[in-house]
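Record 1 of the preview.
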Amino acid sequence: MFRHWDVVDGMSDNQIRYFTMAPDGRMVIRTASILNIYNGATFEHFYHDRRKIYKWDFNRNQIFKDYHDAYGRIWMKSPGYLLLFDLNTNQFIYDIDSELRRMGVSGKLKNLFIDESKNYWFLTEDNTFYFFDISAGELQIIEKGNSDFTYQHGCLLYTSDAADDLLCVDLGGSHLIKKKKREEHKPQRSGEMQTE
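->
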């Protein structure tokens, strides 16, 4: 069953940027200016303070993406800024640097990804690539900014058959894949990869 929602139903505006479902079943709808949370009957609106947002240089094709972490928070990627919203308190967390320091990440973020196991993958402006294992509570440095992948792309990407020697995150799991160049004398099946 489909239902059409708009400002008449209580949404803040009709310019939807991203929507997702919270673990408790509420719908989280990000519009051009406000976070809307629908509980099945009504909308709640949450305004963020534009003066306190975490500014970053992420600007990949105007991508908006939300990730739910293991602590009931939503990391909301936007071109030019990152927001963190706590679903337990229904408040924005503006001190993202402190959240990163608690996990051991230093430096300004350039990109992030949270996988299905709720592990964090961070890329900082100095091209250091971090992995935070949520179950072990441990941070690992995957690359210290000297990899061709992080230098050239600066982004965590899906693997691609067209790519050569790329360090990528397997978005369906929690591990890195290093894709090797195809050897001319030994053909490789499409999509065959080696894991590290």
